[in-house]
Write a structure and sequence with these properties.
459 residues, binds zinc ion, 31% helix, alpha/beta, binds N-(aminocarbonyl)-beta-alanine, 24% strand, 13 helices, eight-stranded parallel β-sheet
């Protein structure tokens, strides 16, 4: 089966021109002007942007967390991602303390295999680093899992200490991988949570007040120092604030490169949402939303090249699940639904409002995730030999976000009523049209596991 996408505005992280894309089977064969080819299927992309499929490297599907499971399955979550123009996601496997990485890998593979609609890969979260875990790092790299997630927070659950962190960094460096981190100071946060509760302060606002900016700035700097000492490539997930960004800016002064991801919510939402009494639970996530000055710092950080990726940290829960913390903010499952809206929100708030260029949009939503996590150039760009993961996007169409039209398995939207400019019209995943005109045309099982290459720490 061959497909020709004609007359679109082809945009990659580097290029921008009117042209055609010729696809044979799952792969792009040629990109250029007026390609002299015939094809089984022709798609007219006049007036549309033609861009690489989005890659969201931070999602949590069916994740056991805080006494429940995140509410999107691999089927519902990757389908919703496709509707929003994201063709590949990287999910987090969580090692259970006392158990092996292999056992966790098998458990997560069991949930994903045959169920994903879009492509997916895994990071491995190491929650218990010991001599036996050390032996398994190479095995995971051989399986194509080349990034290892750590938590400096969630004390008593997922958190590791600095001794484990440097030990893990030594081994991951030796095996050609990368250590990624949720960088906030778990001890200080634990102290503040207990303090607020002992003072009878249980509203969602106190979730925010228990994780002040300093907890993130301090942990980000500590992580950068440990990565610099060990020489291990490092990546900070879901950075939210100016203080943490400045810690990484400081690390560049000794010529260190630490990769930084922010998430769409930290660019467009702020902490005033926590003043809505229990409704604020919709945005209880860790780290919490911050201030307007932090949003400005993050937008600038993207343009300065300090922030390489805009992800989602999609970790959805239903309103009933959020109500588990009705009387105690520390029991509200942390996370919010966003997998479907990342691309359109970033286009509307970023490109359309003149904050970032179109090439930057592609870079932070697709090309950099592919490069940093060992999937480039077969994902993350539109070149001969790449997977034909392609979105056709109308930059002018206006639409409104609502729980009534989204495809995520949550019964509220964190962006209800937001009016966006720019809409995903058609999505191809490995050469097949998977989304057209708001309809998903493939079944669960179409999504494939993406085995990733070793990472270099340089892009
Ligand atoms: O609130 C969040 N971020 N939930 C998901 C787990 C994590 O820390 O990424
Ligand atoms: Zn986190
Ligand atoms: Zn997360």
């Amino acid at each position: 089966m061959t497909t020709l996408i004609k007359n679109g505005r082809i945009v990659t992280s580097a290029d921008d021109f009117i042209g055609d894309i010729f696809i044979d089977g799952e792969t792009i064969k040629a990109v250029g002007n007026d390609l002299p080819v015939t094809a089984d299927k022709v798609i007219d992309a006049s007036g549309l942007l033609v861009m690489p499929g989005g890659i969201d490297p931070h999602v949590h599907l069916e994740m056991p967390f805080m006494g429940t499971f995140s509410s999107d399955t691999y089927e519902t979550g990757t389908r919703a991602a496709l509707h929003g123009g994201t063709t590949c996601v990287i999910d987090f496997i969580l090692q259970k303390q006392g158990n092996s990485l292999r056992a966790a890998f098998d458990e997560w593979s069991g949930r994903a295999t045959g169920n994903a609609v879009g492509d997916y890969s895994f990071h491995m979260a190491v929650t218990d680093f010991n001599d036996s875990t050390r032996q398994e790092i190479k095995q995971m790299v051989d399986e194509g899992i080349t990034s290892f997630k750590t938590f400096m927070a969630y004390k008593g659950a997922l958190m590791i200490d600095d001794r484990q962190m440097v030990g893990l960094m030594d081994e991951v460096k030796a095996q050609g991988g990368m250590v990624t981190v949720h960088a906030t100071n778990g001890d200080v946060i634990d102290y503040l949570i207990q303090k607020h509760k002992s003072e009878g302060k249980f509203a969602p606002l106190y979730h925010y007040l228990s994780q002040p900016e300093v907890t993130e700035a301090e942990a980000s700097e500590r992580f950068a120092d440990m990565a610099n000492f060990s020489g291990c490539p490092g990546y900070i997930v879901h950075m939210t604030c100016e203080g943490a960004l400045n810690a990484i800016r400081q690390a560049t002064r000794r010529n260190q490169k630490v990769f930084v991801e922010t998430c769409i919510q930290y660019l467009v939402l702020d902490a005033s949402l926590y003043e809505k009494n229990f409704d604020g639970a919709k945005w209880v996530m860790s780290p919490p939303l911050r201030e307007k000055k932090d949003q400005e710092a993050l937008w600038s950080g993207i343009n300065q090249g300090l922030v390489q990726i805009v992800a989602t940290d999609h970790c959805p829960f239903t309103w009933e699940q959020k109500n588990m913390g009705k009387d105690d903010f520390s029991k509200i499952p942390n996370g919010h639904p966003a997998i479907e809206h990342r691309m359109e929100l970033l286009f509307s708030e970023g490109v359309n409002k003149g904050r970032i260029s179109l090439n930057k949009f592609v870079e932070v939503t697709s090309t950099n995730p592919a490069k940093i996590f060992g999937m480039f150039p077969y994902k993350g760009t539109l070149g001969a030999g790449a997977d034909a993961d392609i979105i056709l996007f109308d930059p002018n169409e206006k639409h409104t976000v609502s729980v009534n039209s989204h495809h995520m398995n949550t019964n509220y939207s964190a962006y209800e009523g937001w009016e966006l400019t720019g809409k995903v019209k058609t999505v191809l995943l490995r050469g097949t049209v998977v989304i057209d005109d708001n309809k998903c045309l493939v079944e669960k099982g179409y999504g494939k596991f993406v085995k990733r290459k070793k990472v270099s720490g340089v892009v």
